Amino acid sequence: MIKGTYYDGKTSEKKDVLLYCKHNGLIGFAELDVAETPFDDVEISSRIGNTPRYINFPDGAQFETTENDAIDEIVKIFSRKQFHGLIHKLENAKTFVLTTVVSVIVLSWLFVQYGIPFISKEIAERLPEQASQYLGQGVLDIMDKQWFSETKLTKQKQKELQQLFRHLKTKIKDSQHYKLVFRSGGPIGANAFALPDGTIVFTDELIQLTNDTLDIAAIMLHEMGHLKHHHSLRATIQQSSLAIFITAISGDISTSSSIVTAIPFMLVQSGFSQDMETEADSYALAYMQQYNIDPEHFAIMMEKLVASFSPQYTQCLQEYRNKKTETKNITVLCINQAIEQHSTQEQSQDKKLLDYFSTHPSSKERIARFRSTK
């Protein structure tokens, strides 16, 4: 006999009863005037810990009990379902459960670390240019609202740089949609980055670091390398894929939406992997060697970009501003002084800098690579 509570399924009334199960599999109640029911006609809930079990009858009645062991014995004897009680068995198989949890964590990490980047690369390389244009729409608008303001470069300077950009493009296949825009960087400072739609953004602060247009050309070629290898598009797809993955795992839509809205910030702060940065460097270096542009220009700009975030550079600019000195090219003067005062290695140790070019790999390694080709 198994103690429990009986509900007739027609009223809210409940009764404390004793359930029995005969050797032929008929289930009935000792104190109720109800017909016996074959075991195969009832539904018995799976065991989950010591929570109550339920036996549901064809007429809508239900029997509830906490005597799980007795129910298990009945199921063991009469059940024809191979996996009945599987949840309970798995719950008690702690080694299996632990192994499963660890496996899920490891597989999830592998998927995020390697699966998503691989899938993103394959998708980016197969998407038509129209799709890239669509995905990049609105990104610059968001950046303008959050960080940038209108460029302060002279019309003549902009014209000169646009001509340089167009000249570099003529030797690059399928670069018709590449375009160059200028912005005052504000909190971003000296920076340059490529957007999925083919737009390359240069900040005024970066342009002002040098008087040599070939220094700027070296950075343009690096950014074109990002576009040629679809790095911005791949990074955007990766972020979106990660958002979908997190939603699928956690069901938290707010978290995934936060990742998607962070895409503009990711592109500014260099969300590119080491492989992507190396690919863009390789593209720029190959172009410079093919068309006789000294790779030293890239090394010089790397030094200047790193030094532009140094306290020595900031202090130098502030001193000239306090003196209200009308010296021409103060920016170039200060950046050269900052480079002389500190080595690239010391400068690149500050991980808090929004230096687009000093993340992966290290600036010192990248500079050495370009100088070793001379």
Structure characterization notes:
The chain is α+β, with helices and mostly antiparallel strands and 374 residues long. The protein folds into 2 domains: 2-84, PH-domain like (Roll); 131-371, no CATH class. Helices cover 55% and strands 12% of the residues. The strands form 2 sheets. The chain has a 7-stranded antiparallel sheet. Helix 9 (231-250) runs antiparallel to helix 10 (253-261) and helix 13 (296-307) runs antiparallel to helix 17. It is elongated.
Describe the structure concisely for a colleague.
The protein is an alpha+beta fold and 374 residues long.
Radius of gyration: 34 Å
Helix coverage percent: 40-55%
How many domains would you count in the coordinates? Answer: 2
Shape: elongated
> Counting H and I runs of at least 4 residues, what is the number of helices?
17
Sheet of most strands: 7 strands, antiparallel
Structural class by sheet pairing and helices: alpha+beta
Low-confidence parts lasting 5 or more residues at pLDDT below 50? 347-360
Could you give the order of the helices and strands?
EEEEEEEHHHHHEHEEEHHHHHHHHHHH
Report the β-strand fraction as a percent range.
5-15%
Q: How many beta-strand elements?
A: 11
Q: Return the average pLDDT rounded to an integer.
A: 80
Looking across the biggest beta sheet, what order are the strands in? 4-3-2-1-7-6-5
**What gap, in angstroms, lies between the N and C termini?**
92 Å
